[in-house]
Amino acid sequence: MNSIKRPLAVFSVAVATVFALTACTNASAEGSVAEAKSTDAGIQEKGVNEAARALPPAEIRDKGILTIASDPSYAPFEYFATDGKTMIGFEIDLTDHLAASLGLKPEHKAATFDTILPGLASGKFDVCMSSFGIRPERTKIVDFVPYLQGGTALGVTKGNPLDLHLEDNSMCGHAIGAQNGSIQALIQGPEFSKACTDAGKESIDLKTFPSQSDVNLALTSGRIEGMISTGSTLAYQGQQSGGKFEVASGPAYQPVGVGMAVKKGSELTKALRVAMRDLIDDPYYAKLYADWKIRPAT
Questions:
Q1: Are 225 and 69 in contact (CB under 8 A)?
Q2: Which residues form a coiled coil (predicted)?
Q3: For residues 108 and 273, is the Cβ–Cβ distance under 8 A?
Q4: 172 Cβ partners below 8 Å, 6+ apart?
Q5: Fewer CB within 10 Å, N or C, the chain?
Q6: Minimum mean pLDDT among 8-17, 216-225, 271-280: which range?
Q7: What domains, with CATH codes, occur in the chain?
Q8: What sign results for the dihedral spanned by CA atoms 81, 122, 215, 147?
Q9: Does the pLDDT value for residue 244 go beyond 80?
Q10: Exposed / middle / buried, residue 199 (Cβ in 10 Å: 0-12, 13-18, 19+)
């Protein structure tokens, strides 16, 4: 997770690799982003991708709207603006741009992370966009359109006074938080805890919370001693916290592709992949990275 200086070249390779590995199936952040740094102008200037426009299911084309679900507790990817109701962020701008490419109007819906995929399955949403790691257990139930790579990190209070890290069993016996429904809560947290007990140490006291904001608050209020989440989210939110918490040193854990989820077998998946490939070569894409201070993983 290194440089923002060459996002287009680095990410073009990363996405091409993910597309190739999945047979066309299927980050860190820094600094603050002013709401005035809107990319609406770039979105409005974006022309329709005619090749992609014809691909979505007829019911989506006919209604002219792309319904996108996100958990707005994941700054800088999606979060509420100061009005408390408008969602902004990297992934919001990205899906706005892709919707415009398909000749559709984006309609953003806020949802808690653990309800997003069930909402997709029920037809409530067309696309789920909330930093979903592309993992085997998820690809069994949804299709993905990749756009980033990222891994898990450990958030700790300023200065890391307990000297906690992800892979040295230093979390054993400590209260560690994660968001409901996340890979960190469902898979990685239990795996870390098992490594502790396998080594003859006390298990991790894994606590889960409805949103990432709730996890952050639990850490800063002393109810937990560390938290595991997407590294890019923790890095950005730690900086926005005024120094209340930070990311523990060490490499990202199990970096994977990150993608937007689409209903399994939907023609919308192909449409979004075509639009995404076109976007990678668009100067707007590099601007999107720069505006939100997103760095692709390397």
A1: no
A2: none
A3: no
A4: 193, 196, 199, 201, 202, 203, 204
A5: C
A6: 8-17
A7: 7-150+257-295 (3.40.190.10), 152-254 (3.40.190.10)
A8: negative
A9: yes
A10: exposed
